[in-house]
Amino acid sequence: MRDLIREESSSSSSLLSSRAKMSSSSGSDQRQPVRRIRRTQTGGNLGEAAFDSEVVPSSLSEIAPILRVANEVESSNPRVAYLCRFYAYDKARRLDPTSSGRGVRQFKTALLQCLERENDPTLRGRVKKSDAREVQSFYQHYYKKYIQALTNAAGKADRAQLTKAYQTANGLFEVLKCVSTVQCIEVDHEILEAQDKVAEQTEILASYNILPLHPDSANQTTMQYPEIQAAVYALRNTRGLPWPNDHKRKKDEDILDWLQEMFGFQKDNVANQREHLILLLANVHIRQFPKPDQQPKLDDRALTEVMEKLFKNYERWCKYLDRKSSLWLPTIQQEVQQRKLLYMGLYLVIWGEAANLRFMPECIFYIYHHMAFEIHGMLAGNVSPPTRENVQPAYGGEEAERSKQGKSKHSHWRNYDGLNKYFWSVDCFRLGWPMRAEADFFPLPVKQLIGKNGLSPV
Hints:
It comes from Hibiscus sabdariffa (roselle). Residues 1-43, 389-411 are annotated as: Disordered. Helices cover 54% and strands 1% of the residues. The chain has helices spanning 2-25, 64-73, 78-95, 104-124, 131-151, 159-182, 189-204, 226-235, 255-263, 267-288, 300-310, 312-320, 333-352, 361-380, 403-406, 416-422, and strands at 383-384, 389-390. The protein has a two-stranded antiparallel ribbon with strand order 1-2. The two termini are 55 Å apart.
């Protein structure tokens, strides 16, 4: 590590000296005031400027939690704090190797100077024979002193304290893994077991919008509403859903988890739309069909009402194009509610990741139309003719890059209104599913997408 710092130091020093020469030669009347990023001074004095290691350029936001851990543990173990900062610096180099982001070069230079100054004194104060052993030992100390102590407080621990402790432990473990790998030292089994518990509890204490849906949330006030409970229980009916063979079951899995597993939707999007769907169902349930004296159970009428509102425009689109809806319902009555929830959940998670495609609702209908039919095929056990295997999703969350990362000339772009017209024509079904890459909808540059009812030449 010291060699890397020495190597970077020369380039950083020459950069600073050249900047100093430029400032002095430009004259005092032309000198611009230096913008100092300062909140709480940490890491000592960096000469003329104060360095706040928690205030990072936006392009390096991923290293902020690690630097926060460094500040927190510095008083207990300066060497571990140094290793955290060094790991953050190395990560910053990988995130922005050319220092092209705003303020990145200045920040990396300041952090490098901090590391140069702290290396020798923290090394002299190291207790263990290696950095890997030092950070592993401190992780165990932190886990016992803070996490176990808070957990054993019999419910007296504040949620914010626990959340902060778990975040710190996660950051320490990230640094621990890196240092141990570099020094070829195996991580103790006890540490791995402790980190598994930390990761599980971090998931439980994850932030939420309105509804705390983690497994230990049953006693939360919001979750006591019978209508909320009814919607949650209905979503957790995953009976009969074909999970992948390598799927790892977790507590309180629900229909949205299955959609994420099968189609590759983003985790945070799934969490947001889970809450969205529960609130939609509960709001209709509580206003239209209250059952205060009965066991929480989702009323089928409430479910039907929400579904009709959600798919009103999709049904109109299907009718306009003379296509059958993909909202196929099973003949077994006990499975109908689950299927409806699957269809509604699928639409919401598609919409949640649609970004600017929301300006093209008919395009979303097209995507949904095929994915909903895939759900019907998977649950019915249909076999794909080309592969002679059970039907699987055609797409699993891959992202396509278009418009040369936004660098194409504006005249070569196709705008939302124009593209959306394509999905008001029955010709949109020429795309197929999976969509054919050679379809005339995709080639660049585009001269004519479709006939008189479609786009004009660009």
